[in-house]
From TrEMBL:
Residues 116-181 form the HTH luxR-type domain. Keywords: DNA-binding, Transcription, Transcription regulation. This is Helix-turn-helix transcriptional regulator. GO terms for biological process: regulation of DNA-templated transcription. PANTHER family: DNA-BINDING TRANSCRIPTIONAL ACTIVATOR DEVR_DOSR (PTHR44688:SF16). InterPro entries: Sig_transdc_resp-reg_C-effctor, Tscrpt_reg_LuxR_C, WH-like_DNA-bd_sf. It comes from Tenuifilum thalassicum. One of its GO terms (molecular function) is DNA binding.
Length: 190
């Protein structure tokens, strides 16, 4: 099941900072909104909403409207007072980057699983081949020659890979390939 994180916060700086952190999690789509009224429920995805404490009532209205289906919540609280019910995790605004990333992965059920196994299901075999070649430092033309496909097809595969993973750079794809076991350190050219 796809995972979608919705960030709803009145502060641009907070919203964009959280969005930047969440985008580093593979296989997670991210949307951000200024107001809860702009939130769009994704029916066939796991929805996690990260929102400001002032939107707590709006969050409960949304969960009632959708019978609580696949909607999880993390409330950003700026004060010391714990708010909300047990079905909403409340965190302080000064939460660390890694701590937030791990909390989101836990809430979406991405911990304890090999993201690589999930990834193998979402990337086609040919896309995995393209990632492997990119990680080895090959250009689009070299990849096309090795895989016996056109350069245009390589570019299309790269666009699809970026859309699925949210990783745009070759160095990011290299790190991803290493972490997911698509290549080993000895496969890379220096």
């Amino acid at each position: 099941m796809k995972c979608h994180v919705h960030i709803i916060h009145p502060s641009d700086i907070v919203r964009l900072g959280i969005e930047n952190i969440i985008r580093s999690i593979p296989l997670v789509q991210v949307s951000s909104y200024l107001y809860f009224k702009d939130f769009t429920y994704q029916p066939n995805e796991k929805n996690l909403v990260i929102f400001d404490k002032d939107y707590l009532d709006d969050f409960y209205d949304i969960t009632k409207r959708h019978n609580g289906k696949l909607i999880l919540g993390i409330c950003i609280n700026t004060g010391n007072k714990i708010i909300g019910k047990s079905d909403v995790k409340c965190v302080k605004l000064d939460i660390g980057e890694n701590e937030l990333r791990e909390l989101v992965k836990h809430e979406l059920g991405l911990t304890g699983k090999s993201i690589g196994k999930v990834e193998q299901n979402s990337l086609s075999a040919r896309e995995v081949d393209v990632v492997r070649c990119i990680a080895k430092g090959m250009s689009n033309k070299e990849i096309a020659d090795v895989l016996c496909i056109s350069t245009h097809t390589v570019i299309t595969h790269r666009k699809n890979i970026t859309a699925k993973l949210g990783i745009k750079s070759a160095s990011g794809l290299t790190v991803f390939a290493l972490l997911e076991g698509i290549i080993s350190g000895s496969d890379m050219s220096l």
